[in-house]
Amino acid sequence: MKTKTLKINDFRKEFDKFLRDHLERLMVCSSFSSIINYTPLTGGKRLRPYLIALFSQAIGLPSELYMKLGVAVELFHSGSLIHDDLPAIDNDDFRRGKPSLHKAFDEASAILAGDFLMLYPVKVLQELTINEHLKFLLINEWIRTALSIIEGEYLDVTYEPSSNTKDVNRIHRLKTAELFGFCFSSPFICADRMEEAKKMKETGLRFGHIFQVLDDIKDKLQPIEILGKTPGKDEKLNRPSILRFMSPEEALNTSEKDFKTLLENIEYPEVCEGLKKLWKLIVKA
């Protein structure tokens, strides 16, 4: 019997409540709690937790498990966005259509909140109710992923425009695609399906590359009202972008072909259906 595909809007409502409840239980002082909560609760499409849920439902993982996995990933992602917006990095005053954390509060608070949110996920993963050996493998993969992302951020801010796409692709793999690789593979690690985990990690990396290309296109073409942050920043800051080597139209066409090929590696119809709908959402956003 075919499993019903999880709809992202339905998931987002459920996940936002789960995330809010989780944040309310953090054992930190109330003043710091409001700062920590600011970025995670200012919206967002929840794409990464949704991807975890899609695969988890397809292989029968319990909702409590995949929702906590989603919380870990979303909090880390929020912390990385806080750091991205800081004056020393992207220097952006807006995120998701609202003042960035360092503008809503102050720069020191933003640094510390970002630190907290990027470290805290290990605690979430430690508390998962799975076999201890699997937990060890999952946390090991998470640490490797998190360190890769930070290295990618460094390479992003120190990038010097080159005449080939190799450097750009490497930075995008580390900075963006690695987290998607974790989203695709982590449910399979939790289910002790390691061969599938390896395969889905590579598929997730490919999805991450596609996502970054679409993000490059949006940064160049969309206004702040839609983008939710200052448009054209990447080009002004000489950040790596595939659009240095092809037009937005060429990049979009290539991404669409890559996405269709990517779906061939996924054997779960409900996941493919969810990804197709997600593709439309990302392209139109």
Automatic annotation (TrEMBL):
Gene Ontology MF term list: metal ion binding; prenyltransferase activity
Cofactor (UniProt): Mg(2+)
A family per Pfam: polyprenyl_synt
Designated name of the protein: Polyprenyl synthetase
Species of the source: Kosmotoga olearia (strain ATCC BAA-1733 / DSM 21960 / TBF 19.5.1)
Keyword Transferase: yes
Gene3D superfamilies from the UniProt entry: Farnesyl Diphosphate Synthase
Record-linked InterPro entries: Isoprenoid_synthase_dom_sf, Polyprenyl_synt, Polyprenyl_synt_CS
Top-level taxon: Bacteria
Keyword Magnesium listed: yes
UniProt-listed GO biological process terms: isoprenoid biosynthetic process
Keyword annotations: Isoprene biosynthesis, Magnesium, Metal-binding, Transferase
Similarity comment: family membership: Belongs to the FPP/GGPP synthase family.
